[in-house]
Amino acid sequence: MNVSTVPAQCCPKGIPCAIGGCYALKAYRLYPDRHKGWDRNERIAKSNLETYFLQIAERVAKNKPRLFRWHVAGDILSADYLRGMCRIAENNPNTLFLAFTKAYSIVNKYEGSSQQIPCNLAIIFSGWPGMKFANPHGHRVAWMQDGT
To answer: pLDDT (tens digit, 9 = 90+) per residue, 54-93?
Structure first.
């Protein structure tokens, strides 16, 4: 299972992939009818976060997936959004959750305030060659390969 929001619009500003290297943005532009759900998810996440996470929690509880990926497209929108992700992971200990993120500052601030990421939620920072970012909690990093 997975959930996504609109690529680039729901990502941190100024990230390198938004300039032209985002695979999800390319797919979104090429197949707009296939991504109406991403538009709906963005609308709900930005207007009623509680409803957004309630709907996801209900689907996860009903389907009991072994694996769940946050954001094939889009990213963590806020500390409250990350808190919702963590709450769903805590309530579904038999599901392994995965999130690649460029929202480093949100994750760092969340963990810096003594909030913990559940052990069944793997957060992996996405990086690009030459990019510098803080990673005080030692998250794994997936580096974009540009041939260098």
So the answer is: 999 999 999 999 999 999 888 999 999 999 999 999 999 9
List Cα–Cα distances, 123 to 21, 39, 120, in angstroms. 21, 24, 10
Amino acid residing at 99: A
On whether residue 110 sits in a domain, the answer given is yes
- Count of domains in the chain? 1
Cα dist. 72→1, 2, 101, 104, 115 in Å? Answer: 10, 7, 10, 17, 24
The two tokens of residue 141 are 């990093």
Q: What CA–CA distances, in Å, run from 95 to 9, 28, 67? A: 28, 28, 6
Q: Which two tokens stand for residue 142?
A: 């997936």
Residue 148 within a domain: no
Domain that holds residue 16: 2-143
